Amino acid sequence: MKMSDRQAGICAGWIEDASDIVLLSGAGLSTAAGIPDFRGPDGLYRRAGIDEPESLFDIGRFDRDPSFFYGFHRKFLQLFETVGPTFSHRFFAALERRGKLRSIITQNIDALHQAAGSSKVLEIHGGIGSNHCRQCGAFFSTESLKALMAAQTVPRCDRCGGLIKPDIVFFGESVRHLEACQESASEADLFFVVGSSLVVTPAAMLPSFCRGRIVVVNRGDVATTYLPKRRVDLFVEEDIDSFFREVNSHLGLAVETP
Ligand code: OAD
Predict the structure, then answer these.
(1) Beta 121-123 vs 190-194: how paired, if at all?
(2) Is the CB of 28 under 6 A from ligand 1?
(3) Is the shortest distance between the CB of 126 and ligand 1 below 6 Å?
(4) Sign of the C-alpha dihedral computed for residues 54, 59, 65 and 67 taken in this order
(5) pLDDT means over runs of 10, the chain (258 residues)
(6) What pLDDT is recorded for position 256?
(7) Nearest atom, ligand 1, residue 27 CA
């Protein structure tokens, strides 16, 4: 029996026992959908071929030179038109339907948890679903942003000419729902960290609020600065979808196929 199969059996048992499961998801959860992660071997920051890839999401850089970000965002929005939730997104939606899930805290901006049917989602880094003018605060749907982007390299507000920014949390901006995330984490009896390198704070600090069991599912380095190895009850270094398929072979949840 493979080690990860044994781990899947243990994890399934813990899910059966739990009633307040919290998931902290990262970009690794969406790679199977075709969205690159940031720091994985084929991640965006390696592919970008630029000196300081994190400056892509730096608010100071955005205000000085928005065309830098919009060059990437244009390609990203095209990509998002073709992707859908993975097995693991749907597995956590099934846990919510079972009444097991307290919340999903996601660092992802792709809204794939919601597309899978999850409603208890806290987008700590915001999302691509809405956009606002930096000057007058006017709201723009993603469809209207795309229409402006079709005509301009950098989309400008049609009311005041201000710069429009997607409601993604950039470095230098405050994260969303931090109190709710901390409260959820502290109430969790089973906390999953899935597909995250745990290097970006304050999200990386959230597992340490948990007083219950902690399971990490990630292939690749996971920072231990805020989550020491001794606090992790199960560390699964396996492909995320393969692992949760195996977990579900024990649970038999109805995980809807798209
Ligand atoms: P990272 O790219 O830092 O980490 C993703 C992790 O998932 C890596 O360790 C990968 O090796 C692993 N991984 C990828 N695909 C996997 C698979 N199929 N199975 C198992 N493991 C897999 O992504 P995050 O931790 O989410 O912030 O990054 C955190 C934040 O950094 C992002 O939210 C973003 C970025 O800067 C903002 O944009 C504000």
Answers:
(1) unpaired
(2) yes
(3) no
(4) positive
(5) 89 98 98 91 72 83 94 90 95 98 97 96 96 98 96 96 97 97 98 97 97 97 95 97 97 86
(6) 78
(7) 26
- Ligand 1 centroid to Cα of residue 108, in Å, is 9
Q: What is the DSSP string of 116-169?
A: TT---EEETTEEEEEEEETTT--EEEHHHHHHHHHH-SS-B-TTT-PBEEEEEP
What are residue 235's phi and psi, to 5 degrees? -115, 110
Evaluate the omega torsion of the peptide bond into residue 85 and state whether it is cis, within 30 degrees of 0: no
Interatomic CA distance for residues 17 and 80, integer angstroms: 36
**pLDDT of res. 73:** 93
The Cα–Cα gap between 129 and 132 comes to 11
Distances (CA, A) of 257 to 35, 84, 136: 19, 11, 42
Domains and CATH numbers, the chain: 3-34+85-125+176-251 (3.40.50.1220), 44-82+128-168 (3.30.1600.10)
Q: Detail the DSSP E strand segments found in 46-144.
A: 101-106, 121-123, 126-133, 139-141
How many angstroms is it from 99 CA to the middle of ligand 1? 27
Residues with Cβ within 8 Å of 114's Cβ and at least 6 positions away in sequence, in order, are 121
* pLDDT value of position 133: 98
pLDDT at 39: 86
CA distance 206 to 186: 8
Return the closest-CA partner of residue 4 out of 168, 218, 222. Answer: 218
Hey, which residues are catalytic here?
A: 125
